[in-house]
Target: Arginine biosynthesis bifunctional protein ArgJ
Amino acid sequence: MYQATTDKKWIKDIPDGGILTPKGFKCSGVHAGLRYNKLDLGLIVSETPASCAAVYTTSHFQAAPLVVTQESIAREGVLQAVIVNSACANACTGDQGYRDALKMRELTAAKFGLPEHYVAVASTGVIGEFLQMEKIEAGIAKLAIGNDQEDETNFQTAILTTDLVTKHACYSAEIDGRTVSVGGVAKGSGMIHPNMATMLGFLTTDANISSEALANALKEVTNTTFNQITVDGDTSTNDMVLVMANGEAGNRPLHPEHPEWPVFIELLTESCASLAKQIARDGEGATKLIEISVSGALSDEEARMIGKQIAGSNLVKTAIYGADANWGRIIGAIGQSEASVNANNVDIAFGDITMLKKSTPMAFDEENAREYLMNDKVEIFVNLNLGDGQGMAWGCDLSYDYVKINASYRT
Model:
C-alpha cells in the first residue's frame, strides 16, 4: 500500500525536481504545429543507454505508439530516448498509424544518432485521426535537447492535452553511499481510469538496476499508485508509464536481495504516487482532490478495490462537488464492490468527522461537515473491521465543467 514516507529520513522530497534531476538526462519541447500555438512535441534522452520498463493500457485498442514502444523494449530491454506528441493519439489508425509511429522512431533515432530500437514512442490526443507527419518531421528536426529548467518545462508542456497544469515529482535517497534520484513528469486530466488513462507518465532515475528488476519494481508500484486513480471511469487507448534507469549514480546493481532495495521501491513509489495524485487533482473540470483510505479489509488488494470503487462513483463525486455530507453515497459504492464486507460493522469518516461507526449513524454537525467538504482536498476514511488489509485511491469531484469540456473536446 502507498503510504507517505516523506517524514522518513532516508527519503528526500525535491519540490522543484523532475526528469532532469537524476544524472545524465536531457529533454526538449517544441511547437511542431499539431496544436494552434502550444508546444506539442517533446523528447527525453539519456546520455547513455538505459535499462527500461513500461506498463501499458489494458484497452483492447492499444494505440500504434504503444505497439512500437513494446517492440523497441523487447529487443534488448534498453532505451535511450522517448519521443512524445500531443494533439493526436494515433490510435485506431490501422496500418498507416503503425507506419507513422515507426517513422517517428526512425526520425528521432537518425536525428540523435541512436539505434532505432533505443527509441520509444508515445502519443496523446484525439483518437481516430492520422498524424500530420510533415509537421512531426519538421518538429523533430527542431528538437535541441538541454538540461536546464526551461528544457524540462517545455517538455512538460508539450505533452499536455486538456490538462490545466504540468505535473512533476522527484525524490532522492542514499543507496550504497551514493545519491540516487527518481524524477517524473506526467500528463492526464480526463479519460482516467487506469489499469494502466488518457494518461502518460515518464520517469528517469540514475539508479544502477537491470531492466528485469526495474520491470518488477514498476509493476509493483503502479498497482498501488497510478492504478488507484480515477477521474471518469474511462480507460484510454494510449496509457503508458515508462521509466529509464541509466546507472549514473554508481550504486551497486539493485535487485530484491539488495539490502537497500526497499529504499529504491520507496523512491519509485513516492514519485509515482505524487504524479498520480496530481493527475487526479487536475481532472477535467475538477475542483477537489478526493483521497480514500481503506483499512480493515481482508487483504490489501480488497482494500484497494473498495477505495477505487468509491473514488469512481459518480454519486460520490457529485456529492463532494456539492459539499453534501451524504455518507450514504459511500455505502452505495462499497456495496457494489466484490470485496468482502460485513454490512453490520463498517466505519466511515470525512476527515476527522465520523459519520458511521460499526454501521450505526453518528450525530454530526452538518455545517461543519459542509465546511470540511469545501476544501480543495477531501479525505474519506473507511474501516471494514475485517482484517489487516489497507489501500488508498485518489479521484476528483465531478462538476458541470466536465460535461462542457468533453462535449466540445474535438472543437
